[in-house]
Amino acid sequence: MIITLTANPSLDRTVDLGAPLTPGGVHRIGAESTQPGGKGINVALGVHRAGLPVLAVLPAAPSDPLLALLEAVGLPHRSCAVAGRVRTNLTVLSSPEITTKLNEPGATLSAAEVTALQELLLASVTAGDSVMLSGSLAPGLPVDTYVRLIESLHGVGARVGVDTSDAPLTALAAALPGTAPDFLKPNAEELGQIVGTDGTLLEQQAAAGELTGVRDAALELHRQGVGAVLVTLGAAGGLLATDDAAWFSPSPAGPVVSTVGAGDSATAGYLIARERGEGPGERLAHALAYGTAAVGLPGTTIPRPDQVRPDADRVIRL
Ligand SMILES: O=P(O)(O)OC[C@H]1O[C@](O)(CO)[C@@H](O)[C@@H]1O
What is the side-by-side strand order in the sheet with 87-94? Predict the structure, then answer.
């Protein structure tokens, strides 16, 4: 089973201005919607829609509107009751095709709530499960939460993936090679944060077709014990470092509607292919196909398998 932890879930509110966003201006909202959000929830939705067993673990008060949204989409979940409300993250869609994201920090968890959340996750996992630790940490969670969870989850025989940024990512980098996840999903910026290089430069190089910097950084993380490193490079494609080698594929072409959730969909695609026993090329192709499909869907909509076209023929070994 695949289990995701969303340590800082969200209600994702998307508003479409249908016009340019002007700082200081007054804008009228054309269309709006609210969807369940947070990286682990998005990954779990992708896995669930592909028909694989999944469980999303998260903190939320029993009456929180997020839980009603999860019921409505039918996502199997277990929540740890907390006092604070789930944050609302705002996505502003403006023309020409610009996505602006405003993320709240999230309510602070008490020490007892932190313990209860970690215990709920550990109680949900058995040997052989794959656990994905995704997104930012709610205030109150120690910055090395993911490092400690990798150690505990490895102790029960689970495989562990991580997708995070900023301070929790730096803590993860500091714990290498002693404690390493089995799977890591950085974008170019985050890859730069981990290996201590300029992520923007890595991204620009990849966009220009120069992949050496991204490949070397990803392989270095793999050498430090990370089982597989999937680097998402937006429109430029994605790179996978695993089994002492690296693979690259450009992104399939497709319309851009909302980039929110594209990275999480890529993670879901990767995990779905891995769960089915596919090799690195097919896993990368699934990740990119899921990411591209998500970009073509509104708000934080996670694709169904019939919306995804993996193409392993585009994958090259570097
Ligand atoms: O936990 P973070 O880094 O604030 O990201 C949460 C946001 O990212 C997403 O998971 C998309 O990747 C949204 O659903 C959510 O609003």
Answer: 31-37, 10-16, 87-94, 98-102
The secondary structure element, H or E, covering residue 189 is: helix 188-195
Residue 274 maps to a domain? yes
Q: Residue 132 is part of a domain; what is its CATH number?
A: 3.40.1190.20
Q: Does residue 4's CB lie within 6 angstroms of at least one atom of ligand 1?
A: no
Counted domains in the chain: 1
Q: Is residue 307 part of a domain?
A: yes
- Please write the tens of the pLDDT for every residue from 111-164: 999 999 999 999 999 999 999 999 999 999 999 999 999 999 999 999 999 999
Domain that holds residue 57: 2-9+38-83+110-317
Q: Specify the residue for token string 């700082």.
A: 23
**Is 210 a member of any domain?**
yes
Amino acid (1-letter code) at residue 155? G
**SS3 assignment, position 122:** helix
Report yes or no on 24 lying in a domain.
Answer: no
Interior angle at CA 302, CA 311 and CA 248, nearest 5: 30
**CA gap 173, 21 in Å, rounded:** 37
Position in ligand 1 atom list of the atom nearest CA 164 = 3
- Cβ 260 under 6 angstroms from ligand 1: yes
**Amino acid at site 109:** L
ipTM of the prediction greater than 0.95, yes or no: yes
Ligand 1 atom with the shortest distance to the CA of 35: 14
